[in-house]
Specification:
about 230 residues, alpha/beta, Rossmann fold, seven-stranded parallel β-sheet, 7 helices, 9 strands, globular, binds NADP nicotinamide-adenine-dinucleotide phosphate
Length: about 230
């Protein structure tokens, strides 16, 4: 048996987060905490994992009941990796995109991450070297191609990219590395909402395999980096 790793994955009820939990759970040395709002889907995911190493945290990153989260992670002394994968995309032309939608997108894609990192800092700073992986988007990268309907989403992903650089600096003395993967098109339900009819060249499972490996080992080679992970536009 190798060294046990404790990993938190947000947005685990579907898409890349779901497949990343499945991937990580193949190794019985990994202990995974899967977070999203949809309890039934998390329970179904847990059942899919034969090593009995997945615990679920039904949790809304917008309402953010901090006490509930603290109770859920109470028994954990340290967290080796936090994968901030949960994301919200609303595809709406700018002139019709309400300020309420802007706020909700930023609540999930930015403030949810901020609060999660703040809440989990005690356990992240006691790991040998923890790795926070923020899932960004090519749309949030300066100078990349932009697409109509995605202004709030892309702006929120630009914000998470910048936050990554800031946190890497601020948390380095706590033994925490922070990186951002700026993803290109991956075949998921979110992609279908953003680009109806478009077929992405990368599957969610393939992305999940890359992400699981990166979360566990990428911080040996990167810190404070925004890494494009894209083979196509979009
Ligand atoms: N797919 C792509 O082509 C692509 C490209 C670039 C970047 N990305 C990024 O990659 C990540 C995963 O994308 P995906 O395509 O797998 O998305 P997805 O299929 O839409 O899944 C999004 C996940 O986020 C969770 N989530 C949404 N709102 C939440 C909230 N308020 N509280 C807690 N969890 C919440 C959802 O769970 P519940 O509904 O159960 O809460 C779901 O599990 C996202 O950050 C996305 O922006 C994806």
């Amino acid at each position: 048996m190798g060294k046990q790793k404790i990993i938190i994955v947000t947005g685990a009820s579907r898409g890349i987060g779901y497949d990343t939990v499945l991937e990580l759970a193949k190794n019985p040395d990994n202990q995974i905490f899967a977070l999203s709002r949809n309890k039934a889907k998390l329970e179904a995911l847990q059942k899919m994992c034969a090593n009995n190493n997945v615990q679920i945290i039904p949790f809304d990153l917008v309402t953010f009941e901090e006490d509930k989260l603290i109770r859920a992670v109470k028994g954990i002394s340290s967290i080796d990796a936090l994968i901030n994968n949960a994301g919200l995309l609303i595809n709406e032309p700018f002139d019709g995109l309400s300020i309420k939608s802007w706020r909700t997108i930023f609540e999930v894609n930015l403030f949810g991450v901020v609060q999660l990192v703040q809440t989990l800092l005690p356990q992240l700073s006691t790991a040998e070297r923890a790795h926070i992986v923020n899932i960004g988007s090519m749309g949030g990268v300066q100078g990349s191609s932009k697409f109509p309907g995605l202004s709030a989403y892309s702006a929120s992903k630009a914000a998470i990219a910048n936050l990554t650089e800031c946190l890497a600096e601020e948390l380095k003395d706590k033994n925490i590395s922070v990186n951002c993967l700026a993803l290109g098109a991956i075949q998921t339900e979110m992609l279908a909402e953003a680009f109806p009819g478009y077929e992405a060249p990368v599957t969610s499972r393939a992305m999940a395999a890359y992400l699981a490996e990166f979360a566990l080992n990428g911080h040996q080679f990167h810190n404070g980096k925004i890494i494009p992970v894209a083979v196509s536009t979009p």
